[in-house]
Each structure stands twice: as C-alpha cells, then as structure tokens.
Amino acid sequence: MANTSLDIWVANPKAGAFAAVTVDFLVYPMDTLKTRIQSPNYNHLYKDAKTGAIKRNILFRGLYQGVWSVVLATVPSSGAFFTTYETAKHILILSSTHSQPISTSTPSKNPLPITHPLPLPLIHTIASSLGEMVSCAVLTPAEVLKQNAQMLDINKSVSSPLRKGATIQVLAKFRHRPWKLWSGYTALVGRNLPFTGLHFPIFEGVRGWLISVRERGKDSVGKRAVLTGVAAGVSGTVASVVTTPIDVVKTRVMLGASGEGAARKVKGTVAVGKEVLREEGVKGLFRGGALRSLWSAVGMSIYLGMYEGGRMYLEKRRRVKGEDEGRL
C-alpha cells in the first residue's frame, strides 16, 4: 500500500472533500424527498386528504434544509471510513495465506502473528464493515439532525420574522438531551454494514474487471477515476435496492429521536421494522427505494471516482518525489 493513513486523510480534504461536498449538494434534494416519502406522516403532510394529490408546493419546498450538518460531518466521517478500510484491507491481505512467500528464506510481510485463508471478497467485506462502524459513530448525530431538518416546515415552526435555520431549530430540541443525537446509531450501522458489505466486494470486482478489459494503454489517473466511478455506480445501485428496507427503518428511528418531552421513548430498530411491516406491508419497507438507488449511483460514482483519482495522484507524486531524491 503506497498510501499512508495521512495520505488517505489528505485525499479527503483535497479531492475527497471536494467530491464529498459536490455529491452532498448534488444529491441532497433527492435525499430530502426520500426522507419525506419514507416518513410515517407522508400521506398526512404531503398529500391532499380529499383528492390524494401530492402537495407539490410543500413536498418540494426546502429541499436543502439540514444540508450543512451533513457537509460538516462528511470529511471526518469519510476520513475515518477510508483510513480504517484501507488499513484493515492492507493488513488482511498481507496476512492471507495467499500472500505468504513460497520460500522460507524470504521474509514475510505479515503484520499479524497468524495467517488466514479468507478469500478477497470477504476481506473487502470485513474491511468495509469495520470502516463503517467507525464512520457511523461520527456521522450519526449529523444524520439525525439532517433528517429531522428535512421534515421541518420552517415557515410554520417560527413565527418571528427572524427565522432560524432548520438545523438550528432541530438542534435546539436536543439541547437538554444531546445523547439522543446518537439514537439512530444501531439503525445506521444496520443499514450501512450490509450496504458496504455488498457494495465494496461488487465494486472491487467490477472495477478489477473493467481495468483488466481496458488494460491496454497507459493507466492514467483520469482513466482509473472514470473506471472507478462506473464500478461505484453499478455496485451502489445494487446495494441500495437490497438495503432499502433497513433505510426506511433508520429514517423512522431518527425522525422519532427529536420527539418533544424528555421522557419520550425512542422505538428500537426491530420494533419500528415490525410496525412498518404490520401497517404498510412489504411495499412500505421499499418506500423511496427508486430515489435512493438513483442518488446512490450518482453519488458513489462521483465520490469514489474522485477519491480514487486523488489517491492515485498522491501515490504517483510520492513515487516521483522518491525517485528524484534517489538521484540526488
């Protein structure tokens, strides 16, 4: 692994942070619509009770409410994910029995005291799962603020002409119980673990196949970024469709975290899942799935494509610098 953990964090503030912020602003309206469609009050708030017609003036209003909570959390959460993912993947690959030297005279690079026979797809799954568990601890408060801000009717919530932003209004609800900002951690991990567990093995496999097919010619930073983006879009779509039910549950849990009254009990992930299934059926567990698949494909394609381009650029710059120093 030519990139250090510092390189991975540097890639995020440069290429990664730019990509993440770009993706946040590009797909955020679709994410807001998804949250509103998945909310338990969708029919009551966004549909006319008599005609059943969608209240477009309300559904499509304030699509960027809560965006800054996500923007501010993107860099540390994505940095935590990729640092953990790349490090765990590197260690697991080096400790694999497939990576051990054939000759006993050749020193082993295994950083662990043991070896394992895990196949590469499972290594990618384990590494991405560890990355998600670390990342979700950083991201959960921002997700809770974001989803509650997306549902806030800012025109009705404050009567004063000096209206506060949606995020500030929601944050005020957690002033006396800040621990509830982590109410959706289990649900977020429950969604992201299967998502990344599916996404990254598919992503690495599709990317490897695309690179092998297009291996003729120079492997430029731009070419690798494009192939990575295509692979990320395909894998993101597949993973999104499969994990939509837990995403619906996660949305419901996080929306319930800001309920008024300190004694209000937030329902657990399993309880909310059973409630959705009982009241809305299987169809209810896939609400917003099409929108989520669309923005996941677009977002993952741009983000991972630009991340890979930034990572390769740092790696090549590091190699060139080492060669230049070697000539001196």
From TrEMBL:
Chief location category: membrane
Q: Where in the cell is it found?
A: Membrane
Q: Key word Membrane present in the record?
A: yes
What is the protein's given name? Mitochondrial carrier domain-containing protein
Can you tell me which family this protein belongs to? Belongs to the mitochondrial carrier (TC 2.A.29) family.
- Tell me the Pfam families matching this sequence: Mito_carr
Q: Tell me which stretches of the chain form a coiled coil.
A: none
Q: Gene3D superfamilies per the record?
A: Mitochondrial carrier domain (1.50.40.10)
Provide the alphabetized UniProt keywords.
Membrane, Mitochondrion, Mitochondrion inner membrane, Repeat, Transmembrane, Transmembrane helix, Transport
Q: Which GO terms describe its cellular component?
A: membrane
Question: What is the organism field in this record?
Answer: Petromyces alliaceus (Aspergillus alliaceus)
Give the signal peptide as a residue range, or say none if absent.
none
What InterPro entries does the entry give? MCP_dom_sf, MCP_transmembrane
